[in-house]
Amino acid sequence: MIFLLMVVSGFCVPLLAERLGHKTGINLVTEIAQLRTHCIDSAQGLMEILSFGRERRALTALQIKHGKLLQLQSRMNHIDALSQALILLLTGLALWLALYFGVQLVLAEQLNGVNLALIAFAVLAAFEAIMPLPLAFQYLGRTKKAVSRLLDLAEQKPAVLFTEKDNNSDFSGKYSIEFNQVSFAYPEREAIFENLNLKINQGEKVAIVGSTGAGKTTLIQLLTRVFDPASGVINIANTHIKNFSESSLRGLMSVVSQRSHLFNMSLRDNLLIAKPKASDRELYQALKTAQLLDVVEQLPEGLNTWVGEHGSRFSGGQIRRIAIARAVLADLPILLLDEPTEGLDPITADEFMKSLTELMVGRTVLLITHRLTDVQDMDKIAVMENGQIIEFGTEAELLGANKRYAGLYAQYHLI
């Protein structure tokens, strides 16, 4: 009889808990994820929420989600309480049966009283081992859902597959860039490029200008192999980029963009991402090149100053100068600049471009911009429209041709 009660406690009650808690556990995982997302979005977009007077609406949405989460947690607690009560009931019943029959044996002098106590303790110990099972089964649905979310992420196939080793590592220091008949389209969208051709020679500085949506930033995404083109060939140093391993390709180019990210750690650690073994002297020299040394020297803890989430300790222009300092430390032969002055006021943008001058020396440079004053020090300018290079040459040549660039130039200087 006691064995039967143990089977009910260790098998039937956990299955009941699993059945009652399966759907609730799955909903619990979903609600927790949605609540976290809402909290992060609200915190990061607090300025916009306050600006449009939507703080009450955001708070109401938070309270609704929090209320749903509390309801689910309350239901899980009720299920837990029910399963634990059943286990305790069955444990008490088994103990009562053991003592009842044991006392009869003791009275009949067929069992020693000390042994009866040991039997009672053995029954309690057996049911104590069973006690956690209902709770584990109750949260099984939640655990499966959480594991499923992790596996969905882990099993996603990368958009680009790199080779493990370089197929050709002899570049002779000639780091040219060439797009040859390149076509590309984002999933479920019209083509961005159709048979695009562009050649940037070693040490040449080329700017790409054009309207928003022309495909300028996509050039850098293809160069860094965030995506691969549908057709055509992209060469670096006369070598197909698919012949580079990931580490080799990343070791050829630095990227400075309008979205340069700072991690929530010290300024020193943010800089060491580019060169982990850099000395303090190298760090200060890089900051000097980026024209940020005076700012850093005034910080309370210098290089050890915590930058805050998303670099909140610094302005947008200073964050981009830190990105320049990283590029200086990395000292790579190709420099990719993706709208580096976007969002900066004209004076700050001009000063920022001046700080890039030293970094560009001797490097192959591709600058993406819509700000025509940024292209003055470029060797060549390419005008892109609808995924095609429609003009290419020096600024003087393009102005002399009196076509698209000349029109952009005239319009820009009238603003």
TrEMBL record:
The lineage of its organism: Bacteria, Pseudomonadati, Pseudomonadota, Gammaproteobacteria, Thiotrichales. This is Thiol reductant ABC exporter subunit CydC. Keywords: ATP-binding, Membrane, Nucleotide-binding, Transmembrane, Transmembrane helix. PANTHER family: ATP-BINDING CASSETTE SUB-FAMILY B MEMBER 10, MITOCHONDRIAL, ATP-DEPENDENT PERMEASE MDL1, MITOCHONDRIAL. Residues 177-411 form the ABC transporter domain. NCBIfam families: CydC. The keyword Transmembrane applies. It is found in: Cell membrane. It comes from the Bacteria. SMART domains: AAA. Gene3D superfamilies: ABC transporter type 1, transmembrane domain, P-loop containing nucleotide triphosphate hydrolases. The chain crosses the membrane at residues 81-103, 115-140. Its main location: membrane. It is a multi-pass membrane protein. Residues 1-142 form the ABC transmembrane type-1 domain.
